[in-house]
Amino acid sequence: MTADLRIRDLSVRLGGRPVLSGVSLELRSGSFVAVVGPNGAGKTSLLRAIAGLVPHAGLIALGAENLDRLSARARARRIAYLPQGHEMHWPLPARDVVALGRFPHGAADPDRLGEADREAVAEAMRVTDTEAFADRAVTELSGGERARVALARVFAAGAPVILADEPTAALDPRHQIDVMSALRARARCGTLVIAVTHDLGLAARHADAVAVLEAGRLAAVGPPAEALAPDCLRRVFGIEAFIGTHQGAPVLVPWS
Ligand SMILES: Nc1ncnc2c1ncn2[C@@H]1O[C@H](COP(=O)(O)OP(=O)(O)OP(=O)(O)O)[C@@H](O)[C@H]1O
């Protein structure tokens, strides 16, 4: 199943304060969208609203379906969410954590997965380079290793929409590139991937589109070269950046 995501006039209030106001976005299935913006701009709140985890006003629809009208289980089959920080408190083997991604599809026991579930788990562990620690307790993994296991759980879900909150935050450079490439590859297979990141360079290099949030409002949206143009970077982030190309791809380095 693939479908476009339509967000119309989305507003979120938390603690009595507006944190998102009048955000409207049309995001196409099969695209990789980076959401960027300064601290507190509302990026996590946007993902949480799409995932159905915070109350909101406005419409969020996947294809013809209003997501608010779906049961939690039906929503979980459509949207896989990687939260920021992805803390894990139970010493489960990494493979079992990844298998949790199959629970919206009816799996109930990581030791007794059906063939499709086992294949989805194996493929997710392959693309996230987590097979080497499949049998180790997630509580004993490094922050970056655990982050990749959490991402594997999201991949294993096979949902038409992936929401990833800072998926590369804890990763070394090679795994940052690998994870962004894996998210892009997933988008190429029809998934809508929406990833929050503070790394404007990775966003410029890997995303098809960038949505820039500023103080709860959409400041810009479009291809990286448009949304991350110098005037927007100056206005929203207060920075100057080196912008160029390398091997035909955009290069953006925050500079001063
Ligand atoms: N539970 C809450 N109660 C009250 N205010 C909240 C709550 N959660 C977030 N906020 C506020 O909402 C605003 C947006 O927060 P959000 O986490 O969406 O920002 P963000 O863009 O993801 O920030 P960061 O880059 O720092 O992760 C912030 O001003 C934050 O203080």
Task: Give structural notes.
The chain is of the alpha/beta class and 256 residues long. It has a single domain (5-254), classed as P-loop containing nucleotide triphosphate hydrolases (Rossmann fold, 3-Layer(aba) Sandwich). The chain is built from nine helices and twelve strands. The protein has helices spanning 43-51, 72-78, 94-99, 115-127, 143-156, 173-188, 200-206, 224-227, 230-237, and strands spanning 5-14, 17-27, 32-36, 57-62, 65-66, 79-82, 161-165, 192-196, 209-214, 217-222, 241-246, 249-254. It has a six-stranded mixed β-sheet with strand order 6-7-8-3-9-10, with helices on both faces. Strands 2-1-4-5 form a four-stranded antiparallel β-sheet, covered by helices on one side. The protein has a two-stranded antiparallel sheet with strand order 11-12. Helix 4 (115-127) crosses helix 5. Bound molecules: adenosine-5'-triphosphate. Adenosine-5'-triphosphate is lined by residues 14-15, 19, 37, 39-45. Belongs to the ABC transporter superfamily.
